[in-house]
């Protein structure tokens, strides 16, 4: 029997499959999740987390042609950026390069000049890895000590495992900051923060607009905030396990993923929170000042 033209023998396929599955360096830009001293990431290369869920790389915005270093869900066809390294320092072309400098800091350079210092911390023997939860961690490979992590420097998105609140030992306050507009990641008008009650028995989310209180979620009661009735309700899929943590080193709000893809809460430029995991449900509409309009509407 004649073989059809273009027929690929199963053994050939097998061998190729084997080569790929072994991750042999068939291509110089084979996906990796880690960057070390001497490595460079430019606009044509990316880091991919081990399980493939998250990608880190440069992206550019069509309206401006500015480029930024960011993280996104690899398969998100809307390419929503869940983190941006340089929101206020765009690169005006696509010549940005992420590298580790000799001090072990992560920096972005363009034309050989350092434009942005991504990690303020450094260490000898440091390596930065994009983890499966979307956290980009700079760690000391010898001591396995975390030196710096993107989850400690959130932009406008809260991912499962990220925290809103503060660290008692470092005084760090984890807050989200909205983009200025859909095309400008630079600091916008709104922040989302965690406000514990005085006795630290519970807490609520607060949105401030240019520093002034704009909206609060009401206290967390079980798996709902009082003024976020849509969240985890019957009309939207139950995706999040909400947790408030009060212990010796922190006081914060976080959530875990239950099911679903592209789970994220985004603080939009207009001051509302969008749940990306639920085909884009607004969970805190902008006109729900202090939650009052919602209550009156029910
Ligand atoms: C990115 O790096 C690769 C490999 O070093 C190189 O071949 C490519 O030309 C670079 N791309 C840009 C846009 O500089
Ligand atoms: C962005 O770059 C492209 C290609 O160089 C160009 O055609 C376009 O006009 C630029 N857009 C802006 C907003 O500068
Ligand atoms: C690209 O932009 C950066 C600043 O964002 C600048 O330092 C660099 O010279 C530019 N490179 C080119 C080739 O225009
Ligand atoms: C954290 O920052 C937010 C927004 O700026 C502020 O409202 C809140 O009081 C801060 N929390 C602490 C503990 O500093
Ligand atoms: C607070 O910071 C300390 C010191 O960096 C760290 O060990 C601890 O894990 C942090 N706490 C939280 C809740 O992230």
From TrEMBL:
Keyword list, A-Z: ATP-binding, Cell membrane, Disulfide bond, Glycoprotein, Kinase, Lectin, Membrane, Nucleotide-binding, Phosphoprotein, Receptor, Serine/threonine-protein kinase, Signal, Transferase, Transmembrane, Transmembrane helix
Catalytic activity: L-threonyl-[protein] + ATP = O-phospho-L-threonyl-[protein] + ADP + H(+); L-seryl-[protein] + ATP = O-phospho-L-seryl-[protein] + ADP + H(+)
Every Bulb-type lectin domain range: 32-151
Membrane topology of the entry: Single-pass type I membrane protein
Record EC number: 2.7.11.1
GO terms, molecular function: ATP binding; carbohydrate binding; protein serine/threonine kinase activity
Cellular localisation: Cell membrane
Keyword Thylakoid among UniProt keywords: no
Highest taxon, organism lineage: Eukaryota
Signal peptide: 1-23
Presence of keyword Protein biosynthesis: no
Enzymatic class: transferase
CDD domains from the UniProt entry: B_lectin
Gene Ontology CC: plasma membrane
UniProt protein name: non-specific serine/threonine protein kinase
């Amino acid at each position: 029997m004649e073989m059809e033209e273009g027929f690929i023998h199963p053994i050939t396929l097998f061998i190729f499959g084997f080569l790929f599955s072994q991750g042999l360096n068939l291509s110089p830009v084979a996906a990796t999740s880690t960057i070390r001293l001497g490595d460079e990431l430019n606009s044509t290369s990316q880091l991919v987390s081990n399980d493939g869920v998250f990608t880190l790389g440069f992206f550019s915005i069509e309206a401006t042609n500015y480029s930024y270093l960011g993280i996104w869900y690899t398969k998100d066809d809307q390419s929503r950026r869940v983190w941006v390294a340089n929101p206020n320092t765009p690169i005006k072309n696509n010549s940005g390069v992420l590298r580790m400098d000799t001090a072990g800091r992560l920096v972005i350079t363009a034309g050989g000049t350092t434009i942005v210092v991504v990690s303020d911390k450094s260490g000898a023997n440091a390596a930065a890895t994009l983890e499966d939860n979307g956290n980009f961690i700079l760690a000391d490979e010898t001591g396995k000590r975390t030196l710096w992590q993107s989850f400690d420097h959130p932009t406008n998105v809260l991912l499962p495992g990220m925290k809103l609140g503060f660290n008692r030992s470092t005084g760090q306050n984890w807050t989200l900051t909205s983009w200025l507009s859909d095309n400008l990641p630079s600091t916008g008008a709104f922040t989302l923060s965690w406000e514990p009650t005085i006795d630290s028995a519970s807490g609520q989310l607060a949105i401030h607009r240019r520093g002034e209180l704009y909206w609060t979620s009401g206290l967390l009661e079980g798996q709902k905030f009082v003024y976020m009735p849509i969240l985890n309700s019957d009309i939207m899929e139950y995706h999040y396990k909400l947790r408030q943590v009060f212990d010796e080193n922190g006081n914060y709000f976080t959530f875990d993923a239950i099911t679903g893809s592209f789970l994220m809460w985004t603080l939009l430029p207009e001051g509302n929170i969008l749940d990306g995991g639920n085909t884009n449900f607004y969970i805190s509409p902008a006109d729900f000042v202090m939650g009052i309009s919602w209550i009156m509407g029910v």
